[in-house]
Amino acid sequence: MFDLLPFKRQSAVPNVFSEMDDMLKKMWYGFPFHNLEEDMDIGWSPRLDVSETDNGLEIVADLPGMDKKDINVSLEENLLTIKGEKKEEKENKGKHYHTIERRSGSFYRAIRLPVEVEKDKVEAAFKDGVLTLRLPKSKEAKKKVAQIEIK
How far apart are CA 58 and CA 112, in angstroms? Predict the structure, then answer.
């Protein structure tokens, strides 16, 4: 709103809207539906598919060019964390790069699970650069779903 006014704001006056926007971005970082374009500024972030069935959750992450040993998956309370590091292998003998778009470096994704899962039955598989996690719902979480009749 102040951008439309013909004068500049004093620098001593805090930009409340900008500060609120920054706080909201920090709060939602790691949430499954946050803006992934912003991740490009801090490194790279794998794309995720999160789906839910009656029996559990399935999370699929694209991690091309990575090895299983470079990936760490943990579950604490209802926060699933996927982190790792994609190492850059570059040999510059006779090559002159014009652009480098392939990302390398470390990444961190945290996903707050919408339901309680059975931690001891979580399955993880990694094949051809794709990490697949299957998290079965706990019995309590399955009971919490109630169908409501519409009259």
Answer: 13
Whole-angstrom distance, CA of residue 136 vs CA of residue 116: 9
Kindly list the domain boundaries of the chain, sorted by start residue: 14-89+101-143
pLDDT tens digit sequence for 1-23: 455 555 555 555 567 777 787 77
Name the nearest CA neighbour of 73 among 92, 93, 59. 59
Which residues pair with residue 71 across a beta bridge? 84
Query: Are residues 133 and 63 in contact, defined by beta-carbon separation less than 8 angstroms?
Result: no
Other CB atoms within a 10 A radius of the CB of residue 66 amount to: 20
**Is 0.70 topped by the overall pTM?**
no
Q: What is the CATH number of domain 14-89+101-143?
A: 2.60.40.790
Closest C-alpha among 119, 143, 129, 146 to residue 60 = 129
Helix (H) or strand (E) holding 138: none
